[in-house]
Amino acid sequence: MNILILGGGGREHAIAWAVAQNPKCDRLFAAPGNAGIASHATLVPGLDILDGRAVAAFCADTGIDFVIIGPEAPLAAGVADRLREAGILTLGPSAAAAQLEASKAFTKEICAAAGVPTAAFRVFDEAGAARAHVREHGAPVVIKADGLAAGKGVVVADSVDMALAAIDAAFMIDGSRVVIEEFMEGEEASFFVLADGETVLELGTAQDFKRAFDGDMGPNTGGMGAFSPAPLVTPALAERTLAEIVRPTLAEMTRRGTPYQGILYAGLMIGSEGPRLVEYNARLGDPEAQVIALRLGAQLLDAFLACAEGELATTRLNWADDHALTVVMAARGYPRDYASGERIILPAPGDPRVVIFHAGTSRDPDGNLVTAGGRVLAVTARADSLREARELAYNTVARIDWPEAHFRRDIGERAVAAAG
Ligand code: AMP
Ligand code: GLY
């Protein structure tokens, strides 16, 4: 079959890498893609991936049989709706169902209706009432701008002053509402499932590293590294997450006439009383996709197809007893201002357990590999132990010739130490 992947980050490179290995994949396209995805797929840089009708027209012209939507923006824009209307098999929820990611206020309402454990919260349309609420309840407290803010809309405020400043900043984001949340104690893990409206299939767990610098310091980023599986998510905790969080949410979506079909990413806070929901995303994480795709390989396409076809009930994934870890190499300055067009020289492919996924790369006019984004590479390795995966990834990072790169040196360090 001919397959189109929408997106052009490290997540989409990992998906393309996995899909291209599956014999079911005949021709692979990616829009817009990047220089790494170009080694698996034909790039379609001119296609507006937020325009569902344009994507459907491209699919009709090119004979695309299956579309995999990587990022959240096309989902929120209703691209999956337009594709399904055009009769094209698609992985990704409708715009109505993708509100689980696009609107924090909507998610809180679903959680309340379905009895899903999450932080207590209030929604404010107006700064004065929000400020009064914070003054009354004190800190720590979490301030979230409603709508898609790529992680940047969330401030965990340790003091009332910090919370008040965050409220003012949030109301400067156009048309925003603000969600003020109880601060939850615990450790975070990412829990991924596929849902086809009836059945749920676990797609693995991961832990990611959102802060820019070692020791979880510095600003929030899209993610500077990840590993899978997340040791916090024991089989018993996974069962509880499905029973108390994921299934009740999906049942509520179905009850409302907007069944959820696609990848559901539950961000969990695991505290002394068990798992609570931090947030939902309607897609795979980036860079969590890189570690999950490396572990699943070609099976990822079978699972995605079964999800889109409503056949998860008869689908099984084969998990090896393995570990994967990814280190993101970013442009210096990310997540703030950074340069593009820096030259990168990659080592010749060596150990098959290591894959260098591209997140933001392109080619200069002479065909040299250059940086073209904040997060640039995700150096990903898979091995029998997390320790070994970590060593393989960092040894490869050291062999990449790009002196200006910034990366964290502590991805997976604590988990390796804890594993003994
Ligand atoms: P979100 O975009 O909702 O995932 O929030 C980004 C990050 O802020 C999360 O990954 C958590 O680290 C943190 N966070 C969000 N909400 C809470 C909360 N209620 N309690 C503690 N930390 C939170
Ligand atoms: N790595 C976090 C995310 O993709 O949302």
Features:
single chain; D-amino Acid Aminotransferase, Chain A, domain 1; 5-stranded parallel sheet; Dna Ligase, domain 1; 4 domains; 9-stranded antiparallel sheet; alpha+beta; Rossmann fold; 420 residues; binds glycine; 22 strands; binds adenosine monophosphate
Summarize the structure.
The chain is an alpha+beta fold.
Q: Helical amount among residues, as a percent range?
A: 25-40%
Secondary structure: number of strands:
22
Bound molecules: adenosine monophosphate, glycine
So what's the CATH class of the largest domain? Alpha Beta
Shape: globular
Structural class: alpha+beta
How far apart the termini lie comes to 45 Å
Radius of gyration: 21 Å
What proportion of the residues form beta strands (DSSP E)? 25-35%
What is the helix tally? Answer: 13
- Average pLDDT number: 95
CATH topology description of the largest domain: D-amino Acid Aminotransferase, Chain A, domain 1
Main sheet attributes: strand count, strand direction, barrel closure: 9 strands, antiparallel
Give the low-pLDDT segments: none
CATH homolog superfamily of the largest domain: ATP-grasp fold, B domain
Instruction: Please state the second-level CATH architecture of the largest domain.
Output: 2-Layer Sandwich
